[in-house]
Amino acid sequence: MDDKQLTTTELIAKISNPQYLKFLELYPQCKCQVKMTAEAMGVTFQTVFNWLKKDSEFLECFESIKKDLNQVRLESYLAIIKDIAEDTSVPPQSRLLASFFEVKKLDPAYRDRQEGTKVFTGDIVIECNIPDSETPPDIPFIEGEVVKELDSG
Predict the structure, then answer these.
(1) Is 84 helix (H, G, I), strand (E, B) or coil?
(2) pLDDT, tens digit, for every residue of 11-40?
(3) d(CA 122, CA 146)
(4) Claim to verify: residue 62 and residue 92 sit in the same structural domain
(5) What is the pLDDT of residue 22?
(6) Closest by alpha carbon to 50, among 17, 8, 25?
(7) Residue 3 belongs to some domain of the structure
(8) Which of 36, 40, 85, 92 makes an SS bond possible with 98, Cβ 3.0 to 4.6 Å?
(9) Whole domain around residue 142: which residue ranges?
(10) Would you say residue 126 has pLDDT above 90?
């Protein structure tokens, strides 16, 4: 396969399984929720999960549709936030909050959490650079001597 990325329409054209096509058609109508879409089709969530696991073309197509729909939803939400931030008839607190969202969108330095950074707090603050797709690592030393030293001091 070449480096050219296929459009969602081109990916859908590669799908021949009628159940997969029905799922892809119903997904946006079911609030972009896999479980709701599965129920509308009369299949289980596990069935859909198995389809995605078994067929890489279906998975690629689903992920493309999901990405496209998320972008449309994001743009819609940002337009609402922008309208609220600029509307003088809206209470100042709401305009201020909406303005914060606009600033965070425009400048990543103002975002609460930088991509790939997780912060765990407690008696000790640990900042780790962990990709978002991973779960926090086990940190065994926190349960060991370090905690005992903090409790006794």
Answers:
(1) helix
(2) 999 999 999 999 999 999 998 889 999 999
(3) 12
(4) yes
(5) 95
(6) 17
(7) no
(8) 85
(9) 117-152
(10) no
